[in-house]
Amino acid sequence: MNDHHLRAGGITETPSFNPWNGRPYSQKYYDLLEKRKKLPVWRYRDEFVKELMSNRVVIVAGAVGSGKSTQIPQFVLEAVALENEYIISCTQPRKVKTVSVSHRVADEMDVNIGEEVGYSVCFEDCSSSLTVLKYLTDGMLLREAMTDPLLKKYKVIILDEAQERTLATDVLFGHLRELLEKRIDLKIVVMTAIFEAAKFQDYFYGASLMTVPGPHCVEIYYTRDPERNYFEAAIRTVLQIHSTEPPGDILLFLTSKEEVEEACSKLTREIGTLVDHVGPLKVVPLNSTLPPLMQQKVYEPSPPPLTENGLAGRKIVLATNNTVNSVIKDGIVYVIDPGFSKQKVYDPLVRVESLFVSPISKSSTHQRAGFAGIAHPGKCFRLYTERSFHDDLQPHTYPKILRSNLTKTVLTLIKLGIDKLGHYDFMDVPAPMSFIRGLEVLNYIGALDDNGALTKLGEIISEFPLDPEMAKMLVMSPKFNCSNEILSISAMLSVPNCFVRPREAQNAADDAKARFRHIDGDHLTLLNVYRAYKQNNEDESWCNENFVNHWALKSADNVRQQLARIMAMFHLKLSSTDFNSPDYAVNLRRAILSGYFMQVAHLDSTGIYRTVKDNQVVYLHPSNSLDHKPEWVLYDRHVLTSRNFIRTVTEVHGEWLVDTAPDYYDLQYIPQSSAKCALEVLYTSRELGRCCIQDES
Fold this sequence. Notes:
Layout: H1 27-37, H2 45-54, E1 57-62, H3 68-79, E2 87-92, H4 95-109, E3 117-121, E4 124-126, E5 133-137, H5 138-147, E6 154-159, H6 167-182, E7 187-192, H7 197-203, E8 208-212, E9 218-222, H8 230-244, E10 249-254, H9 257-273, E11 281-286, H10 292-295, E12 314-320, H11 321-324, E13 332-337, E14 340-347, E15 352-359, H12 362-370, E16 378-382, H13 386-392, H14 407-415, H15 432-444, H16 456-462, H17 468-476, H18 483-493, H19 506-516, H20 522-535, H21 540-545, H22 550-569, H23 584-596, E17 600-603, E18 609-611, E19 617-620, E20 632-640, E21 644-652, H24 654-660, H25 674-696
Parallel strand pairs: 1-7, 1-8, 2-5, 2-6, 3-5, 6-7, 9-16, 10-12, 10-13, 11-12, 13-16, 15-20, 19-21
Antiparallel strand pairs: 3-4, 14-15, 17-18, 17-20, 18-19, 20-21
């Protein structure tokens, strides 16, 4: 047992030696300590410890920049005695912030990352037996609960950014509320935005609530009249701020990667025409597809004046809603909030995910404005009227549990031992159809038996941090003698799009992508990319020359290694069909179909694709690799944007459907359609074949 696990709790004055590793504190520690003491949350340290010692659940409602993500876990660590190998956990909704915050806290505690302070994210664990404070994504804590429902090693569990309401966080809420009755020694801290705190307080039986304000005041400005085009208004506002306001960086919220790219181009052009009248402007894009190294550009200093006595320069950060919370931007003084974000909504009735731009909630507007007051008093320019703010915006963001495909969540709940899903203590209860669809999918892929219990196959599938359909494909791949290749395809599907298509080189990027194209579709095209990456020694310059994302491919390689370990744990054989064999592509496509047989579309006589079970009209996404329109295609995703698109498609044969999933393709459960007619022909042909064999015998 490590000595630091035996110490008594209680905050004391800073000793000269670090109690965690026994070494003298470095000068960096003292420098960071002075910065910590200036954070708003530091003033509430004693109050927080008092609340923690007196209550089992504490809600901390903190503004952006208050320091709660880095300081509260340290306050807990200093106050709570960690006997019997207990440790503290702190969850985050996103991987990038989990890693960055853990590194920051390790620096502040003057310890090595991976030792006393560690982190755990999907496909990466940087912790050890020395770890006393562990940052992890909410999904990883949920996976730990699947194998240890009591979460016995944690003395205090901290849920940060709870207002994000991810699927994993909502499931954890229910599990932890139940855990409070089973473990009297457990304490829970929920950290959230100020305007969401009351709901969490009510959910946890009137828990203690502590509010921490932001560092600085933020002035709010509204438009006099509604804006016809929020994008053009946003660009105009950036230029007005840069031309008329004092120094300070700008943060502009946009809804998508495409908008970020367009804004980059437009601002670069516009600033070029104003160069004699304003200081330099550095445009920094920030979206989830950028590699971490590129995202770190937000920390680079603003550009200096062009001449000795010239006007000061500034940065403009163009961010999507789901990336800005992962990175703290101390230099931001001006925030531009158009009032929109891109939302995903899954319809379980027709099994389609819609992606559309919609107004944000009032809670989100307050969160966005907070970024302007982290280091200095700031201003937030809302590109909508004050009346619209009061009358049109919903109070809270619609939680993901009410608008997502719950198949994976249902599997998690069953693994946790929840057999009556409708009775689970959700903060917001999903529609019954969402559960029904999830149970239906799990039953068809063989993860559940007819009584709703996990099968042996389901137990294996639940161990993979993947969607159940992909996990089923991986588990079945040895049967088709192609598990090595399916591992690579699964890894490529688990990371952001690997193809890069810059605006200034679209034709060259399209030509490069064509060199990887496989005639049978996108899954095998992704395999070609991964193979070529490995054959070229994972060289970054090769990636740049071929317009593929080096970071995405490096991540895929890491994911593949982790998935291979899980396969080895279950003694699933790694094998490959000879590349030159005529069965090579056939085996791969049949293996993919074994997991995705419910995601198939058929080409009717008019040249239109329709999904088999729901008879929905769908279109191949323009990015697909096929050079023809096969009769049958399977797809990875069905998304409604400008049209009903199916993405990542591969050609399959009708006979394979009947062989792979005869129960699912039972004609009595398929609506009248061209797909049903084609299947009837296949069944009839098969029956005639059997009769001929019997006659011959």
